UniProtKB/TrEMBL annotation, chain B:
Pfam families: ABC_tran. SMART domains: AAA. This is ATP-binding cassette domain-containing protein. InterPro entries: AAA+_ATPase, ABC_transporter-like_ATP-bd, ABC_transporter-like_CS, ABC_transpr_LolD-like, P-loop_NTPase.
Length: 315, 241
C-alpha cells in the first residue's frame, strides 16, 4: 500500500489562470458593448411582440387605385381580379363659399385576391435568379483563378500567388459592401446584386477549385505529360475525373449560400425580395413584411431540402 | 529507337545514387529485360529513359537526342511508359484511362468535350481485349479493378500511340503467371509489328528469359550482368517454365 499508483494530475495552475483571464476580459467587454441591456430592456420584447402582432393577418391580396393604372381597361381584368368601389368623405375647402365642406369621393379599386402573394413569389423567383446568375459569374471567374492558383497546372510561383491573392481579395470584400458600391454604379435592381454575389463567391470558388486540384493524385498528370500530352489535355484526362465531384459540391454550396445572400443584398437596393422587404419595413407595413418573411422561410427550407438531396445523390 | 547511355549517373539531393557510372546501348528493335533486386536502380533507369529525371552525370541520348525532362513533346509522343504505381485515374473509367494515352495526338477540343476520335476509341477497345481484360470493365471506374487488372490498363494506355520505344516498369508485378505471359506477349507482338524497342523491368528471371533478347541485371546502380537469355540461364540456372 505504500507505493499506491497515483492518478495523473489532470489540472494545472496555468489552465486555471488562462480561464480567469478570459473571464475578466469577457466581463470588461460586456460593459463596453452594453450586454446587460439584452436582459433588462423590457421594451425590446414588447416592441418585437408588437411588430409580430402587426404581421398578422399576413397580406395576401393587393389593391390598386384604378386611376393610377395607366391605360386601365375595365373590360379586360387580370385573372381572379375584381373591381371594388369605395366612397370616402373628406373635409375640404369649398372654393366658391370659402368655407369647409364635406366632399364625397368615389374611388374604384382593382382588387387581386392573391395579388401580394404573387408579387412576393415573383420577387422570390427574382432572388433565386440573382443567385443563379451570381453563381454563374462566380464559376466563370473562379475557374480560371482556381486553375491558375494550383501548383499542378501552373509552374510559375508568381502567377500562382497572384491568382491566390486575387481569390483572397475577392473573398475579403463582403457582398453587402460591394453591393452598396455597385448600386451607385449600376443603379437599383438585380445587376448590382448579381455582380456583388458573383465577385465574392468567385473568391471562394477560386480557392476551393485550386485546393481540389492540389489534393488530387498527381501521378497520372506526370505520366500523361511524360508521354507528350499538353497541360490542358492532361488536366482533362488526369485531373478532371478526380476534381469533378469536389467542384460540383463546392459550386452547389455557393449556390445555396448565394440564395441566402441574395435576400440580404436586396436590402441595399440590389434587387430581389430584400429590396421589397426593406421598402415595406420603412413604410411600417408589417403585414406585408410578415408575408415576405414567410416566403423567405419557405424558399430557404426548400433549398435546404433540395441541396441535401443533391449532395446525397453525388456521394 | 536507339538508346545510348554513356557513363550516366543519377544522384539525388539526399546523397543517394540510384545510378552510378552506367554505360549501356540498346539498339533499335531490341526487347531488353532489366532485372535486379528492389532498390537496385531499375525504376531510376526507366525514369531516366522516360525523361522524367535528368542525369546528373554522363550523357543519355535517344536517337541522338539528349534525354531530359525538357525534351520536346514530339519526341515524348514516341515513348510509351508503363509506370510502376500505375499512375492511373481511379475515378475515371477504364476506357477513359486507356484513351488518355492518345491525349497528345488528339485535338484539344475533342478531348475537352469527350468526343474522342474514332481511331482512338477503336484502338482502346482492341488493346483492352488484347490484354485479356473483360469487356464489361471498359465502363467501370479503374479503382474497382484489382491491382493486376489495373497494371494491364496501364500497359494498354502506354501502347495507344504505337510508340517506337516502350518503357515498362514491372508491368506484371501483381498478375498471375498466365496473365503475365499474356501481357509480355502483347509487348513482344508490339515490338515485332512495329520494330519498336522495349525496355522492361521485371522481377521474374524465367519470364525475362522467355521474352527478352537481352538481359541486363542492375545492382547498386551498376550493370552486374549484360547478355543473352542463354548466357543468363547458364550463369544463373533459371528454371524454364
Amino acid at each position: 500500500m505504500s507505493t499506491a499508483t497515483a492518478f495523473p494530475r489532470s489540472w494545472s495552475l496555468r489552465r486555471i489562470a488562462v480561464l480567469a483571464v478570459v473571464l475578466v476580459l469577457l466581463a470588461v467587454s460586456a460593459v463596453r458593448v452594453d450586454v446587460p441591456r439584452l436582459f433588462t430592456q423590457a421594451g425590446a420584447s414588447r416592441a418585437l411582440a408588437g411588430m409580430a402582432a402587426q404581421m398578422w393577418p399576413l397580406q395576401i391580396s393587393d389593391r390598386q387605385d384604378v386611376a393610377e393604372i395607366p391605360g386601365f381597361d375595365p373590360a379586360h381584368l387580370p385573372l381572379f381580379a375584381y373591381l371594388q368601389t369605395t366612397d370616402e368623405t373628406t373635409r375640404e375647402l369649398d372654393r366658391d363659399r370659402l368655407a369647409p365642406a364635406t366632399v364625397r369621393h368615389r374611388k374604384v379599386w382593382l382588387v387581386q385576391p392573391c395579388g401580394y402573394v404573387t408579387q412576393v413569389a415573383s420577387k422570390l423567383l427574382e432572388t433565386i435568379e440573382i443567385a443563379i446568375w451570381g453563381t454563374l459569374i462566380a464559376v466563370l471567374l473562379g475557374l480560371p483563378l482556381g486553375l491558375a492558383g494550383s501548383a499542378s497546372l501552373v509552374r510559375s510561383p508568381t502567377v500562382r500567388q497572384a491568382a491566390r491573392a486575387a481569390s483572397a481579395g475577392l473573398r475579403a470584400v463582403p457582398e453587402l459592401l460591394s453591393a452598396l458600391v455597385l448600386v451607385t454604379a449600376f443603379g437599383f435592381g438585380p445587376p448590382a446584386g448579381i455582380l456583388a454575389l458573383g465577385l465574392h463567391a468567385a473568391g471562394f470558388l477560386g480557392r476551393f477549385y485550386a485546393d481540389a486540384i492540389e489534393d488530387a493524385n498527381q501521378a497520372p498528370v506526370r505520366a500523361l505529360q511524360a508521354s507528350g500530352a499538353g497541360r490542358l489535355a492532361s488536366f482533362r484526362f488526369a485531373l478532371w475525373p478526380q476534381v469533378r465531384a469536389p467542384f460540383v459540391s463546392s459550386t452547389f454550396y455557393i449556390l445555396d449560400r448565394n440564395v441566402r445572400m441574395a435576400t440580404v443584398v436586396g436590402l441595399v437596393g440590389a434587387g430581389g425580395i430584400g429590396q421589397e422587404l426593406k421598402g415595406r419595413i420603412d413604410m411600417y407595413e408589417y403585414a406585408h413584411v410578415g408575408t415576405i418573411l414567410v416566403g423567405i422561410l419557405i424558399v430557404v427550407l426548400l433549398l435546404d431540402h433540395v441541396a441535401a438531396r443533391l449532395r446525397r445523390k453525388k456521394t | 529507337m536507339q538508346i545510348e547511355l554513356d557513363r550516366v549517373s543519377l544522384a539525388y539531393a539526399d546523397k543517394t545514387r540510384p545510378l552510378d557510372d552506367l554505360t549501356l546501348t540498346i539498339p533499335s528493335g531490341q526487347f531488353c529485360a532489366v532485372l535486379g533486386r528492389s532498390g537496385a536502380g531499375k525504376s531510376s533507369l526507366l525514369r531516366l529513359l522516360g525523361g522524367m529525371v535528368a542525369p546528373t552525370g554522363g550523357a543519355a541520348r535517344i536517337d541522338g537526342m539528349a534525354l531530359s525532362p525538357a525534351m520536346p513533346r514530339a519526341l515524348r509522343r514516341r515513348i510509351g511508359q508503363v509506370h510502376q504505381d500505375g499512375a492511373l485515374v481511379g475515378e475515371a473509367s477504364v476506357a477513359e484511362n486507356i484513351v488518355a494515352g492518345a491525349a497528345a495526338a488528339m485535338p484539344l477540343w475533342r478531348a475537352l468535350i469527350g468526343l474522342y476520335p474514332a481511331w482512338t476509341r477503336e484502338r482502346a477497345v482492341a488493346l483492352h481485349l488484347e490484354l485479356g481484360l473483360d469487356p464489361a470493365f471498359l465502363a467501370a471506374p479503374v479503382a474497382r479493378l484489382s491491382g493486376g487488372q489495373q497494371q494491364r490498363v496501364g500497359v494498354a494506355r502506354a501502347l495507344m500511340l504505337e510508340p517506337a520505344l516502350v518503357l515498362a516498369d514491372e508491368p506484371v508485378a501483381s498478375v498471375d503467371p498466365d496473365t503475365a505471359r499474356q501481357v509480355l506477349s502483347v509487348l513482344a507482338a508490339h515490338r515485332t509489328r512495329l520494330g519498336a524497342t522495349v525496355v522492361c523491368a521485371l522481377h521474374q528471371p524465367e519470364l525475362a528469359c522467355a521474352f527478352a533478347d537481352r538481359i541486363v541485371v542492375i545492382d547498386e546502380g551498376r550493370i552486374a550482368f549484360d547478355g543473352s537469355p542463354e548466357l543468363y540461364r547458364r550463369s544463373h540456372r533459371v528454371e524454364t517454365t
